[in-house]
């Protein structure tokens, strides 16, 4: 960052927008001097931003409970506070003093969506967020910190469910279209064979009809090309749909830890195979 001379001062604010929730090492090299300096002091600093730096404390206490993931852990709330302080960039450290639960209200600095972390003294834990990927990252981070080898959860993400249903409907339509196109191509190939024979016969017996048959062949050939383009488009759309479906499944599996994650992927693939 090189500010113009008109904006030189004792303070410099630089916005940082992190695209993903991963720890980031920031290397800072600052040149410090007075206004007309010919030489500057060089200060170098390396600072690591925690994984969930793009979430800030929220003032309000509104709670949207439509999208959430719920699970149970056996961990003291004091340890949970340590995890929060290590993985979030907060003005002051979170401390648990008393009460039956710990609840933290946060807001995403990327899209202003809410994130609420609820930790009950009994072990019940709920993350309220519309972002499935964020919920998965939070669970994996917490499981790594607490060294959980097995974790089961139940989740509700209506928007992701709607998206998954839409993608499955698209795949079903593509499958039906592929079958129809396959039948249509088989019919047209039969017509082509018939027209080729007729065109060759007319070349010998009725030359004036030969052009008519070749015109029909040309029309069918264009229809076959159009059918091929449709199949190619369907293939591309189907591939992208499958990528999106697999992405949702992978994110959903990361809401679990250990064999539960692998079992969830297996059940989802079986359901897709059975068109459920």
UniProtKB/TrEMBL annotation:
GO cellular component: BBSome; ciliary basal body; membrane; motile cilium; neuron projection
Domain BBS2 platform as annotated: residue spans: 62-146
Domain BBS2 hairpin as annotated: residue spans: 158-254
Lineage top rank: taxon: Eukaryota
GO BP field: non-motile cilium assembly
UniProt cross-references to InterPro entries, sorted A to Z: Bardet-Biedl_syndrome_2_prot (IPR016616), BBS2_GAE_dom (IPR029333), BBS2_hp_dom (IPR055380), BBS2_pf_dom (IPR055379)
Domain BBS2 GAE: 1-52
PANTHER family reported for this sequence: BARDET-BIEDL SYNDROME 2 PROTEIN (PTHR32465:SF0)
Protein name per its UniProtKB record: Uncharacterized protein
Origin species: Photinus pyralis
């Amino acid at each position: 960052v090189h500010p113009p001379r008109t904006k030189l001062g004792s303070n410099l604010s630089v916005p940082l927008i992190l695209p993903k929730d991963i720890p980031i090492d920031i290397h800072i090299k600052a040149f410090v001097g007075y206004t007309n300096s010919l030489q500057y002091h060089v200060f170098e600093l390396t600072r690591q931003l925690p994984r969930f730096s793009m979430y800030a404390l929220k003032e309000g206490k509104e709670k949207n409970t439509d999208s959430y993931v719920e699970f149970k852990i056996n961990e003291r709330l004091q340890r949970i506070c340590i995890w929060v302080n290590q993985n979030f960039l907060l003005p002051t450290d979170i401390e648990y003093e008393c009460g039956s639960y710990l609840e933290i209200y946060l807001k995403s600095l990327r899209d202003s969506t809410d994130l609420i972390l609820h930790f009950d003294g009994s072990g019940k834990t709920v993350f309220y967020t519309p972002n499935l990927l964020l919920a998965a990252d939070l669970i994996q981070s917490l499981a790594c910190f607490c060294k959980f080898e097995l974790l089961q959860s139940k989740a509700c993400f209506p928007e992701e469910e709607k998206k998954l249903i839409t993608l499955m409907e698209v795949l079903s339509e593509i499958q039906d279209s592929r079958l129809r196109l396959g039948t249509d191509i088989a019919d047209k190939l039969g017509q082509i064979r018939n027209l080729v024979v007729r065109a060759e016969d007319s070349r010998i017996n009725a030359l004036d009809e030969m052009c008519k048959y070749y015109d029909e062949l040309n029309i069918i050939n264009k229809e076959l090309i159009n059918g091929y383009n449709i199949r190619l488009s369907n293939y591309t759309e189907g591939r992208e749909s499958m990528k999106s479906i697999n992405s949702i499944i992978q994110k959903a599996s990361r809401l679990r830890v250990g064999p539960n994650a692998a079992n969830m992927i297996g059940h989802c693939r079986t359901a897709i195979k059975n068109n459920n």
